[in-house]
Amino acid sequence: MSVPQRMRRLLRGPRPESVPVVVGTACTVVGLIDVAAGVFPRFRHSRMHTLAEVLPGALGPFAAALSLSAGMLLLLLAHGLKRHKRRAWRAAVVLLPAGAAAQFAYRHSVVGVLVSLTLCYLLVRHRDQFRALPDPRSRWRALANFVLLGAGSLALGLVIVSVHPGRVVGDPSIADRLQHVLYGLFGVEGPVDYAGRTSWTVAYSLGALGLLTAVTTIYLAFRPEHPAARLTEDDESRLRALLETHGGRDSLGHFALRRDKAVVFSPSGKAAVCYRVVSG
């Protein structure tokens, strides 16, 4: 492939079918970097986080809690984008321009603005790639989110409480650290004391983890569900006409009349496919 052809291919951007994976992977990488920046103090001042700050997700000036929350949200959002979810697309289209504006206001990062707007442009240009419906609402899914994200928040919280050895007052035990994390997830000060402003950093980070766990669990439990498939009276009449004409060839054709299914007719109206979306 010649150099001009490579340049034209590069300017055209990724193939439409690969956009969800490309954008989702970008959100995953930046999300992991932001989580590391929110947990480890030294990482927030490293060259790696300097690179992360010019990418979507680093919306604030070295705020540990904001970096941690943004990273977790980006990881959750990336999963939906890779699965072509329409709601994840809507959230990304709103968050990316907001992130670009925040980066320009706080860090005056032109590179960060360009990267954010480039990803947003890819999402808008290839919006037809994000048509998947949300998963069916389930209390078990909300419970699983609460258990898994709660366990992850507890583990990250223990790391956050323990990565400031030079700032800890005294020598708190593992039980004290665990109690501090549990209290902090609910926004209450625990038994571990820190020198200087470290206590505020730890408190805001733990509070952000607890809030994120609560909000995502409540959303999954009470989110609006996509309307279930329903067979209309007109569709049922057309299906019955087809069954009267050709029903003798299919002994199970009467199952097509179930009310919890939708139907798609061929252009000629001589064939139909009945379906029910389980996981879009």
UniProtKB/TrEMBL annotation:
<keyword id="KW-0472">Membrane</keyword>
<dbReference type="GO" id="GO:0005886">
    <property type="term" value="C:plasma membrane"/>
</dbReference>
<dbReference type="Pfam" id="PF16995">
    <property type="entry name" value="tRNA-synt_2_TM"/>
</dbReference>
<keyword id="KW-1003">Cell membrane</keyword>
<dbReference type="InterPro" id="IPR031553">
    <property type="entry name" value="tRNA-synt_2_TM"/>
</dbReference>
<keyword id="KW-1133">Transmembrane helix</keyword>
<dbReference type="GO" id="GO:0055091">
    <property type="term" value="P:phospholipid homeostasis"/>
</dbReference>
<protein>
    <recommendedName>
        <fullName>Lysyl-tRNA synthetase N-terminal transmembrane region domain-containing protein</fullName>
    </recommendedName>
</protein>
<keyword id="KW-0812">Transmembrane</keyword>
<feature type="transmembrane region" description="Helical">
    <location>
        <begin position="21"/>
        <end position="40"/>
    </location>
</feature>
<feature type="transmembrane region" description="Helical">
    <location>
        <begin position="60"/>
        <end position="81"/>
    </location>
</feature>
<feature type="domain" description="Lysyl-tRNA synthetase N-terminal transmembrane region">
    <location>
        <begin position="17"/>
        <end position="218"/>
    </location>
</feature>
<feature type="transmembrane region" description="Helical">
    <location>
        <begin position="202"/>
        <end position="222"/>
    </location>
</feature>
<feature type="transmembrane region" description="Helical">
    <location>
        <begin position="140"/>
        <end position="163"/>
    </location>
</feature>
<dbReference type="GO" id="GO:0016755">
    <property type="term" value="F:aminoacyltransferase activity"/>
</dbReference>
<dbReference type="InterPro" id="IPR051211">
    <property type="entry name" value="PG_lysyltransferase"/>
</dbReference>
